[in-house]
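Blinded run. Sample ID left blank on purpose so nobody reads anything into the name before looking at the predicted structure. Input follows.
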Amino acid sequence: MSNRRKFLQTLSLASGVAPSLTAVQTPPAKDTAPATQARPPRVRYPRVFTHEKLAMLAFPLGGVAAGSISLGGRGNLRDWEIFNRPDKGLAPGYALPSLWVQMGNAKPVARVLEARYLPPYEGSSGLGSDNAPGLRRMEGATFTGQYPLAHIAFRDARVPVKVSLEAFSPFIPHNADDSGLPVAILRYKVRNPTTEAAKVSIAWSLENMAGQDGREALLQQQGLLHGVTMSNPALPADHERKGSFTVAVLDDAGGNITSLRGWPLGRWWNSPMLFWDDFTADGLLGPEAAQRGPVGAICLQREIPAGAEVEYTFLLTWHYPNRTPERCGWRASKGDEKVVIGNWYSARFPDAWAAAVYAAENLPRLEKATKQFATALRDTTLPPAVKEAASANFSTLATQTCFRTADGEFHGFEGCSDHQGCCTGNCTHVWNYETTTAYLFPSLAKSLRKAAYGHSVDEDGAMHFRQVLPDGKERSGFAAADGQMGQLIHTYMDYLLSGDLEWLRAIYPTAKKTMEYCWLPGSWDADRDGVMEGVQHNTYDVEFYGPNPQCGIYYLGGLCAMRELALAVGDDAMASECARLFESGRQWIDANLFNGEYYIQKVRGLPREKIIKTAMSSMGSADTQNPEYQVGDGCLVDQMVGQYLAEVAGLGALVDPAHCRKTLQSIYRYNYKRNLYDHDSVQRIFALNDEAAIIICDYGKGTRPHIPFPYWAEVMTGFEYSAATHMMYAGMVKEGVECVENIRARYDGERRNPWNEAECGHHYARAMAAWSGVLALSGFRYDGAMKEIEALPRWKVTAFQSIWMTATGWGMFQQSGGKTTVHVLSGRLPLRSAIVPAGAASATLDGQHVPVKVTQAKGQSRLQFVEDIVVAEGGTLVFQA
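Blinded prediction complete.
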């Protein structure tokens, strides 16, 4: 039992609150991880793709909640999703990077600076003429992806210089604003391996996408930044593409900048031909034609000495403020479908040029912080697939799954359809699974909590699990049992990561009300016995009738979290009631739902008149007394999702740990399929044939209902990540890592895009649960209320190091030879105590001895500082014998 748990138990005894909530404790897990990896990993990190594996790559470039343009595997730009909605397949007619090289007086060489097109080549007009597919391109490319950084090494034996591309957008943990810039940075590096100087130009040409008539381009310069800004003043003020786009280049070494507000205007394909003639002649642009088309261009030419390497840094920025609920696909209050809810980035910057100037002026700082984070994750000595899964799903935050309205508040769809958001409203039962936001951008997590506990909670305490915008007018209609309970656990998680008691006090009354809703007549636990017997809407888009593990164990987690929150604010009566219900419910679930291998559902129909109105949707069973769409005896992949979140939040065991582990073994035995050749499904297919996956529900040991719940035969990565992570927490490290490897092996660049895990839509939010694998294996946990860290890795290697995060700072920690070292790379780490592996007996902060009191027990050392300390940014704390 950690000191925090002992403290809370002592507090509860002193206040008359039953301590039974902590009676079930998770035993120390027996690690199944090898001292070193026994076999080469199937998925490496960073991830490298070439040849046919380039085909599906689409790496999102853009700020968190600011829209994105995706970098394709050939170095091309695809999926221009910057116009306030998803836009799969959207691209300008021309988005063309071009390379020109001349060695001495030799004949110049020119290429479109992309790798050659990949099959198939078929179409009604072949490949058509957009982006001039018939122009010469580089022979090939190798793409290395480590979100937020992408690197492409181009190859072409007939080009005398070596060219690579480094692409990224600022992505800085805990800095949501600087991570939310509408910018893509494309830095081409050109190395001259020859013995003579080379003259090299790189140009970027881009079609103005702001409608047709009235398009304009403006040449701009500020300091070292030169750009072409495109807009259309003729568009109505409320038009979806009213705004601006800038393509700019940084000239930090006195190169030759040339530009065009537009290619020469021409009929047929004269315009691209005339541009290519102009550029390939001397590597410069201009003079500008009297009549111009809509494709602007900017070019930087530089001399590169023999053996030298130089950089060409281009910035693409955008500014499109007219986000409306109707445009993006969000549910709006009646009559407000066309109201402009805006974008936070467009409230910060007046236009795309201003965003480009900010990014350019701050680029060294932004790039340093971005790469510091990327390096920390890369250098973490966890299995490559676990790091790669977490990193790849960070990208979801930069897609149209997420946006920030003009007031700065964060919102999320479940995912993206091709041209609209999919499943509106920060859906609680989906976003509950992910932990990325809480750790990387805690201010955005608190924004989600603000929405959940705001107008979404009605007078009875029902949390309508989809937020309607503009906020404060309408509610979505009903509550989800798993969504409501998960928000309580997330609230506790947010509180622990920050230690922000003032924030908790403000949100607590509404959080308490959402727990009390469970006990209303006709609600989930009307008889107040700690078991959800009522009708429970859930993430499978139907209602479960009667006690079941998915909602029931979630309820135990909600009770656990609510008790801790109540204790923190001094509400002893609420804490006592939650403790009583937890103990009652825990005992009943273990005694009645565990079948010896896993937990099952006891289906119990109810007359419709006995069901509280806000507990039911129209998507479940029409017959409430003999309900369809139930789990029954099936082995459900997320039957212990509440326990998974409880592990992340440090709440301890909710059910019998032996039953828990047996259940996870059953999921691994039944739901985990080494291949899917013999798995029949008439539902959506996210994995098939030779691919390994965990299916949602297996009926191999139980009778399948005639009409089971939706999605039961499907495969969805968010559920797989949460189950795999739970295995890691329970000591099944090898099995958990194996399941994560299987997921990422399916996203190999040929079969699927590695930066787009789909469920109900592209870039599905639930898959951001992948970050939890890093939390589980690193074993680093922070209790901001108690100012205590635990650094007890579950992944065993001789010299261990890992990234860590709280809501106040982040850094790296190392363990080797009985020594634990904690570095703060950003922010701060307030501390009162620390739990590290046994043997540590002293502490130093930045080389200075710090007095501690030491307790050794169960293979652990607990060091309590005589006085609280703060490890500042750049500081180092060391524990050793």
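Unblinding after everyone has recorded impressions. Confidence is low (pLDDT under 50) at residues 1-36.
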